[in-house]
């Protein structure tokens, strides 16, 4: 939809005032409502079929966006799309955390998230081609063709996923029995204060009662609040003064840089089993980018700022979620809910941040940039707070068990 705005989506649907911003925001209302219940179910269903089924559902709903006629139709489609998309990301994070230990999981989550970043990088190029070649073909605007093409492709991918996704380490078809047991036990050994499995509702209670869940959720919310540019990147790039085709092409490099930096930062965090300094340095660079972006009118400097704040931002989310999984994984049920709560409250940012980017603030979007600086600084403060909390937790473990070898990473 963010690329469709550069075609004729707003004009064709007669969107007025902040109606476009509301359509961006409403997706996350549905997205937030489904995450915690969905992850509570993951330990009680076959994740492979469950995740693939919802992927098929969102592919169909996304395709149907090409048929909407007005603001209200788009609003309903976006709300439903958010609901059927809600199981995927927290569910995928939980499944990855079932297979990889604390030194491995951050990089794996980063690789998963590169799908999002590469989509952001190349969607502009794809949109440019679709708009140039199909706009008006068979009476359909280019943005309608874009929804149709991407939706149909996703239907095909979802069909394949039914046969490829595993359910758990102990239910992975391409591993033999010895490998399945090894995959399960290595994660159990890596988890600090590991406990036996419990009920879904007990997992919910334990996650909610552990105050660290809410500290992580606050950090994730501040991070994603600073990340609000993602729904407006083509609009921000267009303020550089280029036509729509060049604008869509220019959205690619910042996300390509983000792809590589995200994997590099996540790998380094896992390699050195360190979280706080990686978050601090990443956010410091992002703050510089936001400051330059709103502090100059130079086209070159502003585009460099976009590359900097996009490139520096994306690795932080992987570190945060991996930190949640490693810290709150005493039971699978608790870990699943903690990941979902963190992601849900984090993505609450996507409900209100669209209103920080009104078209009237172009070209510098000063309010959004200043807020992003504040949000980024908040992430750093909360990360150091969590570091202090976990240092104290490790001291308690040493005091009660002098032979303990498994401690919280920070």
From TrEMBL:
The chain crosses the membrane at residues 48-68, 75-99, 111-133, 145-165, 246-267, 279-299, 305-324, 336-355, 367-390. The keyword Hydrolase does not apply. Keywords: Membrane, Transmembrane, Transmembrane helix, Transport. It is a multi-pass membrane protein. It is found in: Membrane. SUPFAM superfamilies: MFS general substrate transporter. Residues 1-395 form the Major facilitator superfamily (MFS) profile domain. GO terms for molecular function: transmembrane transporter activity. The keyword Transit peptide does not apply. Belongs to the major facilitator superfamily. This is Major facilitator superfamily (MFS) profile domain-containing protein. It comes from Aspergillus wentii DTO 134E9. The lineage of its organism: Eukaryota, Fungi, Dikarya, Ascomycota, Pezizomycotina.
